[in-house]
Amino acid sequence: MFFIIGWAKHSRDLGPVDERTCSHCHNTTVWRRVELSNRLTLFFIPILTTGRSVWDICPVCNRGYEVGGR
Q: What is the DSSP letter of 43?
């Protein structure tokens, strides 16, 4: 018997936040709130989720900053 175990980064889009000007690319767009986490999987089924963080991301250059939760 063998097991397929994996460790992957996962992102989940939580929706638009508001219109902001990015300090990196200087574009004014509607930013997205994203939840980032690490997942341990067994046969491609998520078993354990660790390291959750919530970020506001610029959709043009994908730079952003961490916010204090949802």
A: T
CA-to-CA distance for 62 and 59, rounded, in angstroms? 5
**Which residues make Cβ contacts (< 8 Å) with residue 26, sequence separation at least 6?**
none
Q: How many domains does the chain have?
A: 1
User: Global pTM?
Assistant: 0.76
- Per residue in 45-67, pLDDT (tens digit) is 888 998 899 999 999 999 999 99
Minimal CA–CA distance to 29: which of 68, 10, 56, 53? 56
Number of other residues whose CB lies within 10 A of the CB of residue 64? 19
Q: Domain residues for 19?
A: 5-67
